[in-house]
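S1.2 Input.
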Amino acid sequence: VQLVESGGGSVQAGGSLRLSCAASGWTYSRYCMAWFRQAPGKEREWVAAIDSDGGTRYVDSVKGRFTISEDNAKNTLYLQMNSLKSGDTAMYYCAAERRPYWSGDYLRPSWYNYWGQGTQVTVS
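S1.3 Output.
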């Protein structure tokens, strides 16, 4: 399984970006996917997740501003980010786990077995 993120960049506060995560090598159709972010000197933080039925969850700090979605036909995960703030500046990572629904420590990076290389988002 390979995950490749794209769409990061530099944007002014209040602006928008859409991140993409292209997945390949899937042999299993039911999975959970998530976005994490990591700012310099901080731990990797769970941002949003989507399960195999399309259910979504968000960290409180991005609710109402970020939207996670997926296009199953394209095997692509998205994160639409609006009203960006300087506090959103981080490397953003796509993660996946071959389980259909969240359980236990799904907010922790260790719950996910597949990761992309990350895409940088800078908000000034």
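S1.4 Remarks. The chain has no helices and eleven strands.
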